[in-house]
């Protein structure tokens, strides 16, 4: 049985950084730009990074996200959505060139393809003699640090609960839902709701998030239907080949390329007149890329799964692998898929330089091109371009842009957000203008729908702060849940167990049943020299404590002082004080040790003190002599002074509440109030109360003459 209790007053307390309910979201990259995706979420003391990519328009360190804006050692968790370099290629750097010590998660297929993708990226970078941000060795080592998860698999790491949904876009792409203390944050990464030849569209999470961080690549644009784009694409290629031209498709080695290869394979199969034109998939990793795709067919859609029965759908008949430009026999019309996708360097750039001056040739750019890249530049229809050699030449090849990049368009994103209806939206992964247009359009739509959703479009390093107040809930379980009545304002006490942000209240005996904890006792032992006979110690203890008993155990004497506190006799004038440790018995043990040490120093004190420690008697003697210098009256109140000092010798610091005329003693969490005049003790803990009573009784007995009856 379990009950949900709402803790009144929870979640209001101020904390570090302007309150514990403050959530801070900072893009370190992809803030009003496309590239180097990296976002940091801070909430309730947890720091989570989403994605760790490079900017494809830059090289070397400037391509990295603004890591210096955070302390990497404070990042608990890094979740990588997919293998595209603008989301993953800064990971080896972040792992080994910063003091990041957290955990990294991605899906199985993302991890497998990340390895190939980044090897290709490092190779292209090296060939271009750019400043390397990581090498093959870093990449290999990063594989050991990456942990994997499946879609929908719930993981709890670093006190944060999270799981992922299929994002469409590319194989293995995930949207991450993170739950921190009941607040749910969805990070879409790159996503597409549209099903294609091999991937399902992005899922709509069944649990609505409070905040969504969503890509805004296409702003308010709406894509042509997929079949129209496919028609345009295949026709442009066929036309160029038939006029005797060569067709260059600059692509990433993996991802959307596989979709395009499936499309061309199918088109070639149904158009025999094209069979004389070869299609090349140029990548030194071509074979391995294809085998990874074959491995993860189970993560793809039914269309491709159904094809498996007729043979491996990625084992192409009309497409040949090409390891590099040296193997390429450039003799006539052909189609070449070559990386990198933005024509920065590498094979795609070499072929572009070779073919760009011939008007029969065609460049078909099949995906989104970030600002600052050559691919983006040629889309502006420049008359001339600069080759890698530095030579400026006329651009004559035809340039086409038909997007298959599988990013959601405005229609998909506005539907997606409207359905999930979060309280806040943070836009990332979009150029400033596209993002701004999307923000306005979304605001208009939500206003018309009567929804109050706040939308943010932060720049890099600009922090979005928002308050999220969450009621704290405690789950009462087991015997305690059976015992309590659910009434408003009822006080409930039990053992509170916290795991991450979950709280459970239970009876101590249920601890092992409902948690992985078990109760234990700390038995403390201290060996103390004693100068007086052991049995005389019993009287000494009985003068301070009320329940002192002498027992014989295995032929040895044991003085039981309080429940759980015992003094065991030892040879050679030694005694062992033994107690089951808790705040109260610890205090009792301290006072026993103090008494024993005084006896050790002055064994004769026993007769004189009548149970009152020697130090106290000395102070009594001192105080008795003090007189008010003006009135000549004695200032001394021996009873009050003694009680104050004895309490202090037993319990530590004694506060004096002069308005109430009371002493206040704190033992652990237990507070006791002692009225100075009546000696009435108010305390919730019986043990402490009885100990104080006995101590006061002994002092009073010691101070006043004993009535001998004569
Ligand atoms: Zn992507
Ligand atoms: Zn991206």
UniProtKB/TrEMBL annotation:
Pfam families listed in its UniProt record: Beta-Casp, CPSF73-100_C, Lactamase_B, RMMBL
GO cellular component terms attached to this protein's record: mRNA cleavage and polyadenylation specificity factor complex
Domain Metallo-beta-lactamase residue range list: 35-246
Ranges where the Beta-Casp domain occurs: 257-378
Subcellular localization, as worded in the UniProt entry: Nucleus
Biased composition (Gly residues): 8-20
Keyword Nucleus: yes
Keywords, ordered alphabetically: Hydrolase, mRNA processing, Nuclease, Nucleus
Protein's UniProt keywords contain Chloroplast: no
Gene3D superfamilies per UniProt: 3.40.50.10890, Ribonuclease Z/Hydroxyacylglutathione hydrolase-like
Single GO term (MF): RNA endonuclease activity
Source domain of life: Eukaryota
UniProt-listed GO biological process terms: mRNA 3'-end processing by stem-loop binding and cleavage
Region of interest (Disordered), residue spans: 1-20
InterPro entries linked to this entry: Beta_Casp, CPSF73-100_C, MBL, Metallo-B-lactamas, RibonucZ/Hydroxyglut_hydro, RMMBL
Chain ranges of the Pre-mRNA 3'-end-processing endonuclease polyadenylation factor C-term domain: 488-706
Matches recorded under PANTHER family: CLEAVAGE AND POLYADENYLATION SPECIFICITY FACTOR FAMILY MEMBER, CLEAVAGE AND POLYADENYLATION SPECIFICITY FACTOR SUBUNIT 3
Name of the molecule in the record: Subunit 3-I of mRNA cleavage and polyadenylation specificity factor
Species annotation: Chloropicon primus
């Amino acid at each position: 049985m379990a009950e949900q209790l709402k803790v009144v007053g929870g979640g209001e307390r101020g904390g570090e950084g302007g309150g514990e309910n403050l959530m801070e979201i900072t893009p370190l990259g992809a803030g009003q730009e496309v590239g180097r995706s990296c976002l940091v979420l801070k909430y309730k003391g947890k720091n989570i990074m989403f994605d760790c990519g490079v900017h494809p328009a830059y090289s070397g360190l400037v391509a990295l996200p603004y890591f210096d804006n955070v302390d990497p050692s404070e990042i608990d968790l890094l979740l990588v959505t997919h293998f595209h370099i603008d989301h993953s290629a800064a990971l080896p750097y972040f792992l080994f060139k910063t003091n990041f010590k957290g955990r990294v998660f991605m899906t199985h297929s993302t991890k497998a393809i990340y390895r190939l993708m980044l090897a290709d990226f490092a190779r292209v970078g090296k060939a271009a003699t750019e400043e390397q941000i990581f090498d093959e060795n870093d990449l290999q080592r990063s594989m050991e640090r990456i942990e994997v998860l499946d879609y929908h698999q719930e993981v709890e790491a670093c006190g944060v609960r999270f799981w992922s949904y299929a994002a469409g876009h590319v194989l293995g792409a995930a949207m991450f839902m993170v739950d921190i203390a009941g607040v749910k944050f969805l990070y879409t990464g790159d996503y597409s709701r549209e099903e294609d030849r091999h991937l399902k569209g992005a899922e709509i999470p069944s649990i609505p998030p409070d905040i969504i961080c969503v890509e805004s690549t296409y702003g308010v644009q709406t894509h042509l239907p997929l079949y129209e784009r496919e028609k345009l694409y295949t026709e442009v290629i066929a036309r160029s080949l038939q006029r005797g031209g060569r067709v260059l498709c600059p692509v990433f080695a993996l991802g959307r390329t596989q979709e395009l290869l499936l499309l061309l394979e199918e088109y070639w199969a149904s158009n025999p007149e094209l069979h004389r034109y070869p299609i090349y998939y140029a990548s030194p990793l071509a074979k391995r890329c294809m085998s990874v795709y074959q491995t993860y067919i189970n993560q793809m859609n039914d269309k491709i799964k159904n094809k498996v029965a007729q043979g491996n759908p990625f084992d192409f008949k009309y497409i040949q692998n090409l390891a590099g430009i040296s193997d390429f026999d450039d003799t006539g019309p052909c189609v070449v898929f070559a990386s990198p996708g933005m024509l920065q360097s590498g094979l795609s750039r070499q072929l572009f330089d070779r073919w760009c001056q011939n008007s029969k040739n065609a460049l078909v750019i099949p995906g989104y091109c970030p600002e600052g890249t050559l691919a983006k530049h040629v889309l502006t229809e420049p008359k001339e371009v600069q080759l890698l050699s530095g030579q400026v030449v006329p651009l004559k090849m035809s340039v086409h842009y038909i997007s298959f990049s599988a990013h959601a368009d405005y229609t998909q994103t506005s539907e997606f957000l409207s359905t999930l209806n979060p309280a806040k939206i943070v836009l990332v992964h979009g150029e400033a203008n596209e993002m701004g247009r999307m923000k306005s359009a979304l605001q208009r739509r939500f206003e018309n729908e009567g929804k109050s959703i706040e939308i943010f479009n932060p720049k890099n390093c600009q922090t979005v702060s928002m308050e999220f107040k969450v009621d704290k809930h405690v789950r009462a379980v087991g015997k305690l849940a059976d015992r309590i009545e659910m009434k408003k304002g009822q006080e409930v006490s039990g053992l509170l167990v916290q795991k991450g942000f979950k709280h459970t209240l239970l009876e101590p005996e249920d601890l092992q049943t409902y948690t992985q904890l078990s109760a234990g006792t700390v038995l403390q032992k201290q060996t103390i020299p004693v100068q007086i006979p052991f049995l005389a110690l019993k009287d000494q203890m009985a003068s301070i404590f009320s329940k002192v008993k002498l027992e014989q155990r295995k032929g040895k004497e044991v003085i039981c002082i309080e429940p759980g506190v015992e003094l065991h006799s030892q040879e050679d004038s030694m005694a062992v004080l033994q107690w089951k440790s808790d705040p109260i018995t610890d205090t009792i043990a301290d006072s026993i040790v103090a008494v024993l040490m005084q006896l050790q120093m002055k064994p004769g004190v026993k007769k004189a003190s009548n149970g009152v420690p020697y130090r106290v008697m000395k102070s009594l003697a001192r105080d008795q002599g003090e007189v008010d210098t003006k009135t000549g009256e004695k200032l001394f109140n021996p009873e009050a002074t003694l009680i104050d000092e004895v309490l202090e010798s037993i319990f530590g610091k004694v506060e004096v509440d002069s308005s109430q005329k009371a002493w206040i003693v704190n033992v652990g969490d237990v507070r006791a109030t002692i009225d100075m005049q009546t000696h009435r003790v108010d305390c919730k803990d019986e043990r402490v109360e009885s100990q104080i009573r006995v101590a006061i009784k002994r002092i009073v007995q010691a101070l006043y003459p004993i009535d001998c009856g004569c």
